[in-house]
Structures
1.
Amino acid sequence: MSESATAGADWMRGTRRSAVQDRILEIAGAVFGDRGPDASMSQIAAAVGCSRATLYRYFDGRRRLQVAYVDRVARRISAAVAADVVVEDPGERFTESVLTALEHVRAEPALAAWFVPRGAGVASELALSSELIERAAVALLGDESSAPADGDRLDAARWVVRVIVSLLAVPGGTPAQERATIARFVAPVVVGRRGLADTR
C-alpha cells in the first residue's frame, strides 16, 4: 500500500463511519465530475487516499456508492428547492420546483457529468431506482395535488422523475422554452388543476 493510501486509512480509522462515508461521497463527486458516473472504485479509492479494499468496507460495490451519492445529492437539492421556491399557486410552484431542480443539477459539474450521453444511462437508472428521489418528487407535487391515493401520488412522482431526467439528458431548448413546456404539458397533468386544452 502506498504512503498516501496508508495515511488515508489511518485518517479513516480515527473518524466516525458516517463522517468517513460523507467524505468519500464528497470526493467521489469530484471524481464523477472528471470521469463520469462510470468512474471505477480504484479511481475513487486513489482520490480518497485509501486502498480499494478499504473503500469496499464503506461501500460494498460501485453501484452502492453511486446510489449513496445520488441520494446525498437528491437530499441537498430537495432542500434547496424547498428553500428557493415560495410560490402559492400549486401549478406555478410545481413548475418553479422542477426548473429550480434542473438549475441546481446543471450548475454543478459533478452532477452535469452524469447527464452527458456517455453517462445518461447510468444516471437515469439510478435516479429511477432511488427511493429518496421518489420522495423528493412526491414533495414537488405539494399537498394540493389531485392524486387521490398514495399509490397514484407515487406513480405521478415517478413520472416527474422521468421528466426531469429526460430534460437533463436532452435539454428542452432555452430556459423559457423549458418553462413553457413544463407549465403547459406537465404541471396541468401532475397537479391536476386544469385540462391540457385549457392551457392553449
Note: The chain is about 75% helix and 0% strand.
2.
Amino acid sequence: MASQDHSYLHKKVMPIGTVCELTGLSERQIRYYEERKLIFPQRTDKGNRKYSFSDVESLMEIANKMEDGIQTAEIRKELLKRKEKNSEESLRNTMIKGQLNAQFHKGSIR
C-alpha cells in the first residue's frame, strides 16, 4: 500500500507553467535542464510537457546545485549513480521478497 501512497508523486500531470510557479524557475531554465538530460518530462500528443511532483523536487535540487556552481555534467553523473543505486536496492528487495515467499511456501507444505 505504501507504493500507492506515493504514486501521485510520479504522475506526470502538471504543465510547465505550473512548474514555473512552484519552482520559481523560468520555462527557459526548465527546458535547458531537459536538454542537458537532467529531467525527463512526458509529452502529450500535442507535444506539451507534463511534469510530476517528483520532477518539481528534482528541478529544485538541480537549481540549487547550479547556484552552488556545480556543472550539469556532474549533476547528471550524480543522478545516474542515484538511479543505479535505487535500481540495485529495488532488485535486492525483490529478491529478498522472493526468498521469503519461497521459504514461507516451503514451510507450509510440510
Note: The CA atoms of residues 11 and 52 lie 5 Å apart.
